[in-house]
Design goal:
With 467 residues, this protein is α/β, with parallel strands linked by helices. The chain folds into two domains: 2-18 and 234-427, Enolpyruvate transferase domain (UDP-n-acetylglucosamine1-carboxyvinyl-transferase, Chain, Alpha-beta prism); 22-231, Enolpyruvate transferase domain (UDP-n-acetylglucosamine1-carboxyvinyl-transferase, Chain), CATH 3.65.10. A four-stranded mixed β-sheet has the order 24-25-1-26. The chain has a four-stranded mixed β-sheet with strand order 2-17-19-18, covered by helices on one side. A four-stranded mixed β-sheet has the order 5-6-4-16. It is elongated. The chain binds uridine-diphosphate-2(N-acetylglucosaminyl) butyric acid.
Length: 467
Amino acid sequence: MDMLVVRGGRPLRGIVKVGGAKNAALPIMAAALVAEGTTVLHGVPDLVDVTTLSAVLRSLGAHVERRADGALQITVIDQQPCLADYELVRRMRASVCVLGPLLGRRRRACVSLPGGCNIGHRPIDLHLKGLRALGAEITIERGYVFARADRLRGADIYLGGSFGSTVTGTCNVMSAAIFAEGTTTISAAACEPEVVDLGNMLNAMGARIEGLGTPLLRIEGVSNLHSVEHTIIPDRIEAATLMVAAAITRGELTIENVCSAHLAAVTDVLRATGTEVHFSGSKSFVRSTAAPRPVDVTALPYPGVPTDVQAQLTALLALADGISVVTDKVFPDRFMHIPELMRLGANIRREGASAIISGTNRLSGTCVMASDLRASAALLLASLAAEGESVIRRVYHLDRGYEHLERKLNGVGGDIQRVADDPANMPDSLQLSADELSVPAIDSSDTPPPPKFLRRGESQRIHSHVD
Ligand code: EPU
């Protein structure tokens, strides 16, 4: 296992490029299962999650290979398999995105339930509700979802839940409904750009989906789809993470391959903190010279501030000049980064779905532990801004969703080293000496006299003095 050693306190300056969106690439790769022929995908990032889904697709009869030009090529050679095994799904819950394509194309699916997750409770009840509405028979046995449908019929489906729409749920129901007889409407559909990217690819394959990017989708069923060549949209979460990196280190970055429309909410928050943000075509220029101003932020479904940027913004606001409140309405328990940010010196109190952050003017490097993908990014950003050295452990979370992030940050002035997670690699600065560890004895001559009991009337005088 690896860990990152970060030497903080250096402003990031230069040009950095964003890759293709992980959360678009995964359902799009799964959708290749529905096409005849070879699907060619450009801009699929090189990530552990992509490797995991490639293994799931191979187990489902697809040939998946990375071409010399970087494109991912997926050809279905056997339409029979329908089992997504626990051993693969437990590694990445997004593997559940094969459920809709399998049911739509093969009329059968047996997909392991994903199980627990560090960012909170993540049921798939809405996915199942939508697929049942299309006529699927679904049972859950021995930890697997068994779904089958001799016929899929169009239906009117409401897909909203207590926390808003569901991104992967919309992808799953849409990928099955494209094969349903007649018309399907999905209301309270997720509007995230990643869902739109999937829908655009399905339409290019011959599907008939209208309303992409709005909460109301209308789908006319078709009987078969052909393969296409498709380019994945830029990763708005990686872009936002890099924008926060510029702000938190008080540096200036030109970030290439971004879509400004996808970043409107994050841009608004950053500008409110006093960070300069400009766009020109597919480039963004971000600069900060001072401590951020405090702001209140609420993570909401798109077009709101993404929950996937909540932790990174929390790290930035830890250095703000005042009190900020960050609330997550999508994953109300996604706060495992808070105690680790506090180890770096942040003052944060959690209250329900909110983090109340009292900004400090200095973070100081230490050893922290990543709990999930975006928490790792937040800890990396905070470490870049902290004085001295930090160590981030359990960095495999970062590798699941960011393509060569430390390489990109080092290219613009960061000082991040990847080493084996071994006590021998712990920087000296993080190993306190015996002298530093011993608490100095109290010199009795400096000790204030013990408080005396007040006589009646004295307390009033003292209070009025304090006021
Ligand atoms: N929900 C339900 N029932 C469902 C599905 C979802 O109650 O059947 C709830 C969830 O518990 C959550 C909310 O609805 O409170 C939103 O969940 P959603 O289904 O939209 O999340 P997801 O599709 O499982 C995707 C991303 C996440 C991202 C969320 C929200 C992928 C592969 N994952 O997850 O990305 O946080 O949407 O935008 O697309 C990440 O990249 O780090 C990540 C976690």
